[in-house]
Design goal:
Number of helices: 22
Pfam families: Transp_cyt_pur
Organism: Arthrobacter cupressi
GO molecular function, one term: nucleobase transmembrane transporter activity
Shape: globular
InterPro entries: Pur-cyt_permease (IPR001248), Uracil/uridine/allantoin_perm (IPR045225)
Largest sheet: none
Family: Belongs to the purine-cytosine permease (2.A.39) family.
Strand content: under 5%
């Protein structure tokens, strides 16, 4: 950890002027910025600073190693991830090959997430503010909005997928509701609308209470999901009489086998490309760097190997039972003959999907919107705006349109690698972790992150060709063999290009954001 240098020698009385989110919920943003300016000894702009975008105080941070572990306990075991991993079985990988592929991805993710997490712990700022370091105080809108756009679309889609499970559960409990599931209103049945809106409201209520409530929900959901998936795997193993399909069903060997294994590992990293970018949204409230490492260790390599073992049992066991390859654990859940157990399994899946949505698809757009309109939106208001967008886009129609999923969301996703490459190269290679945190909130033309009219042209220069490379690799049929590695090409090209075009001799100040920090419970 680099040493920090306080700015302005803010006295205790000056720092006391800075209101806490819990003590002064009605404090105007202008007054808040005046207090922050007095504490920092420089002008803090209301267009860049509010209670949600401000750095978090080191004292009182509550995200422990367990908190971070439960993030991964929920997200790793999402239905989407199971569908992906089971897809590796369909591609011809056997049990040990799937575990190797997931192990490769887990090792890479463990390293990347630690580097990303350390940035949040040191600065205490969310991703939109973090991206101001490399893209500039205005250019950062590009990074946060791309990340937020991907997330808000998937928030709606994941809520829709959860509503499908909710419908299955309700019909199993009350068969008469089947009559409400046969019509279509804007592409969704009456029962579909009721279940979707119910889940939509539940998630918005949880998010309305801020990051602390999200932490508590993730801590509750994590063990529930792990126990449920282990029991589901045990049930399949029992039904298969203790036998699973351990070898690949297509007999892959040699170079083709290893290419598929490494492609699986690379795609596993790509799936988490969004999370690697904005992991600082969570670690800004982490108690220590050690808590990040511990949480990531148990949540990534260890948890992912448990996940891999469950996948192998579910896919290989079901194949032994009836010779079919499942697409998702939800298919196994729907086949449970006991209504009571079916309902319990559906409840667990609903708890899981909400947990995944909160962490992966809600926090990012909320911070992006808060960063876009800091004078008008706080965390709660931005959550309702984000959720409303996720509703009005009618996400079930997006999900049912392969062109939207592949080209729109896939195209936006291809930009995440270059964004990551620029941010990480700037922070770790050029600045060596040195950040002037108060300067992230000033519009002073002489500020360290004002660059040219608030935008760093070198970051854009590095990102554009890297994004072009990533998109070409991802979508050109002739490059299909290397398409799984598009995220790595995009991140690598962007990092190298940014490093080459930047001034590597420039000295960077390392200034603490503690004088303008707020409590991490907001």
């Amino acid at each position: 950890m680099n040493s920090t240098t306080p700015v302005g020698n803010a006295s205790a009385p000056e720092q006391a002027l800075l209101p806490e989110s819990s003590a002064h919920p009605a404090a105007g943003n202008a007054a808040l910025c005046d207090a922050a300016s007095a504490a920092a000894g420089r002008a803090i702009s209301p267009a860049l600073y509010n209670l949600d975008l401000a750095p978090t105080k080191r004292e009182g941070r509550r995200w422990t190693g367990y908190s971070i572990f439960t993030l991964w306990a929920n997200d790793v075991h999402s239905l989407g991830n199971y569908a992906f991993a089971v897809g590796l079985f369909s591609l011809g990988l056997g049990g040990w090959q799937i575990l190797v592929a997931l192990g490769i991805g887990a090792a890479l993710l463990f390293a990347l997430l630690n580097f990303s997490g350390f940035m949040g712990h040191k600065t205490g700022v969310p991703f939109p503010v973090m991206s101001r370091i490399s893209f500039g105080i205005r250019g950062a809108q590009l990074a946060s909005l791309v990340r937020g756009a991907v997330a808000v679309a998937w928030f709606g889609i994941q809520t829709f997928l959860a509503s499908v499970v909710f419908r299955v559960m309700l019909v199993a409990m009350f068969p008469g509701l089947k009559e409400l599931d046969g019509n279509s209103i804007l592409g969704l049945s009456t029962l579909g609308w009721l279940t979707f809106v119910a889940l939509w409201i539940i998630q918005l209520v949880i998010v309305s209470f801020g990051m602390e409530m999200i932490r508590k929900y993730e801590a509750f959901a994590g063990p529930v999901i792990l126990v449920t998936m282990v029991l589901l795997a045990a049930w399949v193993f029992f039904e298969a009489h203790g036998s699973i399909q351990w070898t690949g069903i297509k007999g892959l060997e040699g170079a083709e086998m290893w290419r598929t294994i490494f492609a699986g590992g690379a795609l596993w990293v790509s799936i988490y490309g969004t999370f690697v970018l904005n992991f600082c949204d969570f670690t800004r409230s982490s108690a220590s760097k050690q808590s990040i490492v511990r949480g990531n260790f148990w949540g990534i390599p260890i948890n992912m190997l448990v996940f891999g073992a469950i996948v192998v049992i579910l896919a290989g066991g079901q194949y032994k039972i009836n010779g079919t390859v499942i697409e998702s654990p939800s298919q196994i859940i729907e086949s449970i003959p006991n209504t009571f157990l079916l309902v319990l399994a559906c409840l667990a899946v609903l708890i899981l999907t909400i947990a995944v949505n909160l962490m992966a698809n809600f926090v990012a757009p909320v911070y992006a919107l808060t960063n876009l309109f800091p004078k008008h939106l706080d965390f709660r208001k931005a959550a309702w705006v984000s959720g409303t967008i996720g509703l009005v886009i009618l996400p079930w129609n997006l999900y049912n349109n392969p062109l939207v999923i592949v080209y729109f969301l896939g195209g936006l996703g291809a930009l995440l690698g270059p964004l990551f490459g620029v941010v990480m190269a700037d922070y770790w290679l050029l600045r060596r972790g040195k950040v002037d945190v108060p300067a992230l909130y000033t519009e002073d033309p002489d500020g360290a992150y004002f660059y040219k009219k608030g935008v760093n042209p070198k970051a854009i220069t590095a990102m554009v060709p890297a994004a072009a490379v990533a998109i070409l690799i991802a979508f050109v049929p002739a490059l299909e063999a290397v398409a799984p590695f598009a995220w790595f090409f995009g991140a690598g090209v962007a990092a190298i290009a940014y490093y080459l075009v930047s001034d590597r001799e420039q000295r960077h100040a390392d200034v603490s954001g503690e004088p303008i920090a707020v409590a991490s419970t907001h």
